[in-house]
Amino acid sequence: MVSFTLKSLILSATLAAATIATLSSAAPAAPIHGGKASSDPCGRLGVKKGRNIKYKDVAACYQAIPIDRHLAATTISTVHDLFRDYYVFTDSALTPQVPAPFASEPVDILKELKTIGRRKYTSDYRFHTDVRHAVDTLRDGHASYDVSCYNNYGFQQNLSLYAPVEHGVQTLRVYRDYANRGYEDCIVDKIDGKPALTHVRAWATQRVSCSHDVNARQNCALARQGYDVKKAAFLDEPGEFSFQSYLPEKGYVDYELRCSNKRPSGPIRLHEEWQVFPQTEIAFKDVKSYVANICLKKEEPKSGPQGLSRPHRRNLAIPINKRDLEEEDILAAAAGTPRRRQEFGDAEKLVSGNATVFYHLKTQPDTGVMVVHTFDAEDTEVNTVLKGLTAFNNRNVTKILVDFQGNGGGLISLSSNLVQMLFPNKQPRDASYEADLRVTKSVQRAAAAGFMTEDGGYNIYNANGYYNLQAAGPASQYKNNDLFSKPVKITRNGRTNLYTQKTALHFDPLSKKILKAVAKFPWTGRRENIRILTDGRCGSACGMASYLWTTTHGVEAYSIGGTKGEDLSMFSFSGASVLTLKDIRDTYKGLNLVSPLEDLAYKNEVRFAWFELYGKNRTTPLEYDAELYRPKHRLDYTSANARSREVMWKEVVAAAWKK
Q: Taking residues 229-257, what's their average pLDDT?
């Protein structure tokens, strides 16, 4: 199989990191402080710092940037052709009626981009915002359009929100009040004059792109907890509604609260302005220097091809004040309060690594919790997993709860290894997926040039890196270019295009040493001893692991959150692998070919899914095969379990094994 897809390709930007990411790669310059007031909108913004920066300052600067029609035309042409020739779900996105738990409209992304291209824009900000929104409507966590020009500032509310169910009734409540006014757990009756929970759900439906499932999108929008490796603890995260990396629609949010702990007991009305925080320290003094320093790419030195490009791991977070920025830290630091961390009384941490943490439940001593918070780690994480499982075995643990909440994906190979550590392969392809790729003339040109090249393992269009499932006998790698030169026609939603024959992602079996070690564990290969916990934010490689465990091995899954009484997916955007515009351009450059896609003038991160997976014996791509996303069990957040993973784990364990 293609080496980078198995070993080095990140399937998705981690969702929590993506909300605060910026794309500027220029070296930080000293910020401009003080100075005379400027009549230039970006000049006025450039001299401000800290809490002096207001929403209106950023809005005025963004809206003052003049549109360059030539650059806009190049941008829309490149993005359109990228999604036409390389995005594997362009046809599937036209699906008119997606079954539950999905709730997304059909999207003709090519038509949407053409429509944007025909508009006579006078605002550069509006043009790029419309392109971003068009891509976001795909509800594909692997697809995005981001330019550094318009995510140079982050915006956060003083209130973060969640939607617990108490006494059978779901309400929107305050999860965290960063201004320390005592509003935590107050019921939010209205937001901007509308019923609060309805308003947030509508916002998530329209603005959040992490899933085809609106209830998973609701979970992405609201506050939750995530594991922080550096702080070695679960920490609060505000959610996408309360922290936005792009300019919100207006400069404030109006809330109407109902608080049992406040006197008088009538409604409390708050007019909350967005708190604004710069995401870089790059200096600018006017519109012209803002565009030059923040927006435009620096011209790269010209040089000959350096061999085929290897898509690489990308960390989109930009350091602020020489430290890693985390969204929950922003207001906590501004308010002078520490970022809140959980302490567990009955869950003892035994082992932790870069992707996994192992807890032993002391009051339920036969049960251990394996938290898998990411797959963005090296394959050597399997050594940590083995150490954790061994620690469980030494504590006489016989049952394991796998907590996948908030896992935005990572390496497919690590995901496959984890699956095999609980369910070792019986057949070579037990942990593999059938797949195909979109084929166009541009793809065939790269495939013809890249077949059997010396660095072919880094070329996604080298057929020798894929398995030929049509050949007689055991599957073997292609010995010719037939995968791309002899595509098949597939009609989806009335649109016929070319795709490769079915090929496969195949993973090497675990080492004999690991297989021997896991064979002695009492849960290995026993579905009744394993449960999965997710909140629908289990994306990409995480979704692939969940799919294999639940569908192939019969493990039962619990999904928590969303809207009471409605379906909630156990995973999201699980059916593909991700590349960027830069990866495609670098591939052609490495093959000494002219890229059919022009580069963009702005610093950018344009991501797309290029490789689609299928469930076993299924004809619908996994990304759109909604039936496979249904969990066995549904749980609601409460004010207790939403604030404590320990409480949540105990509830799931009690329900799963009737304790």
A: 96
